[in-house]
TrEMBL record:
PROSITE patterns: PPR. It comes from Eucalyptus globulus. Belongs to the PPR family. PCMP-H subfamily. PPR repeats lie at residues 141-175, 242-276, 455-489. This is DYW domain-containing protein. Keywords: Repeat. InterPro entries: DYW_dom (IPR032867), PPR_At4g14850-like_plant (IPR046960), PPR_rpt (IPR002885), TPR-like_helical_dom_sf (IPR011990). PANTHER family: PENTATRICOPEPTIDE REPEAT-CONTAINING PROTEIN, TETRATRICOPEPTIDE REPEAT-LIKE SUPERFAMILY PROTEIN ISOFORM 1. Residues 681-762 form the DYW domain. It comes from the Eukaryota. The keyword Repeat applies.
Amino acid sequence: MACLPSLSLAATVGLDPSSLRSRVSGHVSPLAVEKPPGICCGTNNASASPTATLEVESLDFREGLSVLEDGTGLGPFDYVPLLQECMERRLVSDAEAVHAHIIKTGAREDLYVMTFLVNVYAQCGAMIAARKVFDGLPRRNVVTWTTLITGYVHNSEPELAIRVYLEMLEAGSYPTNYTLGIALNACSSLRSLELGKQIHAYIVKYRIEQDASIGNALCSLYSKFGNLDYAVKTFRGITEKNVISWTAIISACSENGEAASGLSFFSEMLWENVEPNEFTLTCVLSLCCTVMSLSLGKQVHSLSIKSGYQLNLPVRNSAMYLYLKCGLVDEAYKLFNEIESSSLVTWNAIIAGHVQIMDFASDNLSAYQGGTRALEIFLRMIHSGLKPDLFTFSSVLTLCSKLVAQEQGEQIHAQTIKTGCLSDVVVGSALVNMYSKCGSIRRASKAFVEMSTRTLISWTTMITNFAIHGKTQQALQLFEDMRLVGVKPNQITFVGVLAACGRSLMVDEALNYFEMMQKEYRIKPVMDHFELLVDMFVMSGRIDEAFDLIKKMHYEPNEFIWSALITGARLHRNPELGLYAAERLIKLEPRDSETCVPLLKMYRAVERWIDMLNVEKLMRELQPVKLRDWSWICIKGKVYSFEPNEQFCPGNNMEMHMLLEDLLGRAKTLGYEFSGSSELMDNEDANISSRIHQSEEFAIAFGLLNTPKAAPIQIIKNTSMCQNCHDFIKCLSILTARKIVIQDRKRLHKFVDGKCSCGDFWGLL
DNA sequence: CTAGGGTTAG
């Protein structure tokens, strides 16, 4: 067989395993038994001591070279320290300098040195140079071949790696366990299970699965193909498990969403007295982060310091990320600032961490402050000359969606196009979400249509966002499209679908989908689904059905559900049900002051004054954390925050007040009426004759004064809007001819020409 | 042969 198989994937997959086997018949022993001394350590002249030569290690690299210049009659091993230095510095120019020198002194006759050189070029990412050196060699051994294959795998060229692997067999070299390991790795990068299986068959035939190098590679191969059971089986079969075996199985668990199993493998590993290395620790720290176990994470972190890995970058990145996500922000910053040569991953981690804790910060205020900080960090990162990648873009787009920062989001959109990152599904999905959350459903759906591939999350994002914008038909249509394409919806998809139905009070459809979710897709309903359905029943005046559903839940209903039922009971004059629900709500010790408002209204309606006083007392206790009303606006990458009746605004206070008073006057001519404070929590101020400005009104005024004419005004608010402001802002959208977008606690409001996209449920409540 | 950072809801 003179010619090599073609490079195409089809051809490599179609490779006949017998062709592999035939080459080794009669040669089982070297394959199964012989362990090569290593890829970059010597195979020949192993007795010669590579380090006992010139003392170049203490010298500067260039000086080292010049020492060599002066020397005469150098042996090949004189190059070893220099080549080692090259490996660490990873500079092609260094490698070239040494290479030239090697040619000059004739050391190129030495296979060990030349193999090392191939490895150096490969580590520098210079695969063309590596290949050239390789091709120029008069002879090669299996280590040389394996080195080249490894280089291709590490430089993301698995097709070439496989091709070289086949060339090697062709040339009559027998793979070692290392060669097979890296070849398996190439298969997993290629997503070629077929070829992997062929190599596996070969491995099984020669009974070398128990070998650590091969077993480890198999373990991670199965893991990458989502078969954790096989990975575990392979791991268990390895006779002499090393640290790498343990790390491989732990990371396999991590990869397949089995964080808890990963952690138990880790503890088993410690029981077996196997010492974790920096790879293990990094992976375990990330598992602690997944399960949000700060206490375990702290222990693992101190273990890594004790083991001498405190300076290892991945370890530090993981620890930093863990502390940030568990709320130890100062601790995380300490690590961040101490990292000297921070990598892109470091920056990505601190940005992503901030974005994620926005969801579960103890109060909204600190969440948005965290978001502000993340935006600053991102801008600082750009300023320092680092190039953002897929990870950065997806996090920052999500950040923009949470900050309702469209201007910033648009700039990032442009960047993703320029860098080619937009073709990534995750980035694409994040972009869709960003435009929608900034109030532009049109651009969101354009971005969605332009995606070349879509995942479950992409579809879910778009469906949910149609629902948020009140586009029920589009949401449901898209859901059907998604099913047609064969993508299986998940729990969250149905949250979007039910929300879409709820928005249009399509009760029957909602119930159909609810049933479909359970019967056809075997998805257990969670609290979110019940909340949406109860809400829909209440809005439709079907209180009894709401209560029936609550009784059927196999969860303890939460405060939002009782609160919705209370509202329904009050509106539809069912005091008994209302009082019952109130009792249940109070038992839950509501942590959210907004759920108490319906409670107060109901007690007042049935004249239960003592109960009312008690609830008010309860609310006063909650007040400091929850009731403070804040709004934010993001302009040119800066976030400005506002409180009600702002005394010290970031802008010109007087100008903002005057503008608001003027607008208020003109709104009245449009029929706006101030109906007293509808917020019961502001009861003290309810009698004050002058109108109180809520925080979002200041934010709008600031936006009007500081953005170009006709630019949309985009705001976030940590509490729910009151009806008063809602009416007023409808007028503002006419008076100022601007689109005004407000993301409040509960929903997205998009005010255009006096109308809001939220569907105006206010009248009902 | 083994490691760190990303997207959807509430």
